[in-house]
Amino acid sequence: MALRSEPLAFEPSVGLMTGLALLAGMPAAMAQTSTPASGTDGAAPRVALPELDVSGQAPSPYRRDSDPVVRLPTTIAETPQSITVVPRELMQEQAVSSVREALRNVTGISLAAGEGGFSGDNLTLRGFSARGDFFIDGIRDAGQYARDPFFLDSIQVLKGPSSIMFGRGSTGGVINQTTRLARAGNFGDMMVSAYSSGGVRVTGDVNLQAGDIAVRTQIMGSRIDVAGRDHVYQSRYGVAPSITLGLGGPTQLTLSYMHQEEENVPDYGVPYVNGRPLRVPRSTFYGVSNQDRERTVTDVFTARAQHQFNDAITVRNTFRMGSYWRELNATAPRIATTTSTGAAFNALTTPLGQTLIRREPQVRTGYDSIIVNQTEALLALQTGPISHRALVGFEVGRESSEVVRYAFGTNTNGRPNASALNPNYYADSPFIRTTGSDIRTVANTLALYFVDQIKLHPMFELQLGGRWDRFEADYRNRAATTNNRFNRTDEAFSWRTALVFTPTPRVRTYFAAGTSFNPSAESLTLAANNAQIGPEENITYEVGGSWEALDGLRLTGALFRIEKTNARTSDPSGNLQVLNGMVRVDGVEVGIQGRPLPNWNVYAGYTYLNSEIIRSGNRAEIGREFANVAPNTASLWTTYDLPYGFQIGGGLTYVDRRFGNTTNTNRVPSYTRYDLAAAWAPTEGSLRGLRFQLNAQNITNALTYETVYTAHTVPGPGRTVVLSVAARF
User: Fold this and answer.
1) CA atoms of 303 and 318, how far apart (whole Å)
2) Euclidean distance between CA atoms 273 and 586, whole angstroms
3) Average pLDDT in the 12-30 region?
């Protein structure tokens, strides 16, 4: 099995320099161990903690079968659960510059616009919100920011309820980012990319070893204009150092630090008219120059120590501190009630040239923090003829969230109306605001968990797991004078069981069932209408399997049902929420990863989701689909290695139509995006060690609506050409 820690990065700042000084002055180290042996000869299997990198190259770089699954005693291939892994090699071939872009390769995901009081990465997974289900090396990544893959080894998407490993949330699954940490060897690489839309991205990775100590640092600087969107850009900087002490020994210590800063122009796209996105040129942007900005500063420090007592017992402890600061000033476009002629707006008769856009300000500042300590033991046990690989853990954590939201006058709304066709980006917009709310929430978590993978017979395995959580939250609105404080404590037990049947070495099947829970304060917020109700409860049933169809080519598939049996909904009075709702998602997914032929790599997937609101206090929702859930999603990426170091590749992403709301009145059309790539890595001569790469993203310049919210949708980038040069040493 294998574990990872985390780092990140940015341009020099006080926090960055302090973190680097801390790391430089400490004999740090990072955990690395060997993967557990299967132990089919009757002897106790060898227990090992996750490795930083898999030794032994799989038939295809897209295959990560032997990678460990965090908080489980199994590898990817052995886990009775749908897991999609986006490896670093795939992200590099596609010239991916954000985690959000990388997740286009994962079907069953729909990207969501950052609104509703939240910003940063947001998505639904198997139909359910996963905004709070991002993790780094198994610990919650609680910040609201745009995640960058510059320090990542892979992105593991564990689908289906995962509360036994990760606690609250995780109804549709979790996104676990695995990091590249200091390890044995001396090596490095650097890549520079130029974008046709305007912009440059630089990344670097250097690892140095001296005896049993290794030091590694990744850096990133990126400033990219969004193709086809006027005035919109993303700018990020980051650094991710780590130190490992005790390489190759039974005791290892790893310290890692991640710092990332960003300054962007946030994009809230276009509003809906008559239930469809406003039909204006893709470049149309409704923000204003002296207002729209987004800034974030993210710092995450991790210390991980582990000791292997013998082949049967390994103990590790992970301590994490994270802080996330953000400042958002964005324009959310809405249709004004009057036209440019002063008449009342009518969606059916008002000409587009007379339509006015109300620039609704979304202005807030926030600071989130997290302190978590996990202690886990990996055990290899033998009870008669039955062998066990078990993980037992204890977790304690404290999270806090502070958010100040600002209000504006009802007449000016903080910024002037705009013409739908010709908005004035440089319009004079005085910044006058008052504090609307000032909220602080503190939550404490205490949890015990275990998972046991039991080998009953060469053909049969049983997985049993459970987790008990105590989640306590205290909410206070410091700007309110009455009804300003709520608190809630929930205790929940989550379970998961799975039976694995392996009729042949090439075929592995399973049936799994598990639960998860969603407390009212899941996202560190409470309100008068939900502070008195308990958690939502979810159960999933899944039948799946994998088939090594050819040497090096693996097919996976699953049928599943996720049911929320007591969903929150409004009571008849509409003033409170009650747990009387019911929602369900039925689905099927298939995937292909590997090499059909020696030089041909394939990574593909398809997911079908049938979501339905079965019972609700809002009659208009009953029988409708969930918001932002595409019934069909598909992705394909393939490359072929030619002689003399040449490689060609390409792929597509298909996302079906989605609804922006639960009453299904706002609808976003489907889209298909095509990408192409070509690369040359000279194998001889003075250019050996270099890689030249050309990517054409959205080659047909298709109009895509990639992110969806109730009142607006955001167009995706237009055609973008990326030229990259990489050097390895």
Assistant:
1) 6
2) 31
3) 36
